[in-house]
Amino acid sequence: MSNSMSSSLTGFSSALSAVTANDSDQNVLKKHAAFFDRNNDGVIYPWETFQGFRAIGSGILLSTIAAVYINVSLSRKTRPGKRYPNLLFPINIVNITMGKHGSDSGVYDSHGRFVPSKFEEIFQKYARTNPEALTADELDEFLKGNREPKDYGGWIAGLTEWKTLYYLAKDKNGLLEKDTIKAVYDGSLFEKMEAEKAKKKHK
User: Fold this and answer.
1) CA–CA distance from 175 to each of 19, 32, 145, 192 (Å)?
2) CB under 8 Å to 14, separation ≥6 — which residues?
3) N-to-C CA span, the chain
4) Is residue 87 classed exposed, middle or buried when 0-12, 13-18 and 19+ CB atoms within 10 A define those classes?
5) Residue 185 to residue 31: CA distance in whole angstroms
6) Mean pLDDT of the chain
7) Beta carbons within 10 angstroms of residue 20's beta carbon
8) Are 34 and 173 in contact (CB under 8 A)?
9) What is the distance between the alpha carbons of residues 59 and 56, in angstroms, rounded to a whole number?
10) What angle do CA 161, 80, 91 make, to 5 degrees?
11) Nearest 5°: phi and psi at 9?
12) Is the pLDDT of residue 167 over 70?
């Protein structure tokens, strides 16, 4: 094989890898949301959000509250150009980045891509007891640190998301581990929790 052809193939391979990696990054937030799209049609309805929360071990009350809150909050945002709200409150996954709220960690950028430096920053700033986890108090400090002035909607959204995560995913010592948090961001935690619950059910 000639040097020029070898160089061309190497360049093509590198470009393909870059495109694949970039595409994967762009779909991290969508993957996070897609767990709740129980029939894989690209739209999440409140009953699917409810089913998703039940699948990861949430009780009926929490799952109901989560379904109402999440779908009512995100439906209009992810359906741009629609003059009237849809009373079934669907969430369009293709537009999920439009549902990002303020006062957040910045771990997802405006395109829904995972930002490693922002993720590491959480633990550099707030993980004092254990460098690989957050305690309940450290989580509270983290949430306060994210608050933007007068962004009350963002404050409530952040508090709801993180307190629910802590309730569902903390370990036996009351720590929210770094790997657990990262798995939430990439969407893999929900699938793992669903599998673990199914395994316990069939024992």
Assistant:
1) 37, 22, 19, 18
2) none
3) 58
4) exposed
5) 9
6) 86
7) 10
8) no
9) 9
10) 40
11) -65, -40
12) yes
Alpha-carbon gap, residue 139 to 123, rounded angstroms: 10
pLDDT tens for 97-132 read 888 888 788 888 878 888 999 999 999 999 999 999
Please tell me the pTM assigned to this model: 0.78
Which among 102, 48, 54 has a CA at the least distance from the CA of 70?
A: 48
In this structure, are residues 108 and 28 in contact, taking their beta carbons and an 8 Å threshold?
A: yes
Q: How many CA atoms lie within 13 A of 18 on its CB side?
A: 6
At 22-68, the pLDDT tens digits run: 444 446 888 889 999 999 999 999 999 999 999 999 999 999 999 99
> Read out DSSP for 11-52?
HHHHHHHHHHHHHHHHTHHHHHHHTT-TT-SSEE-HHHHHHH
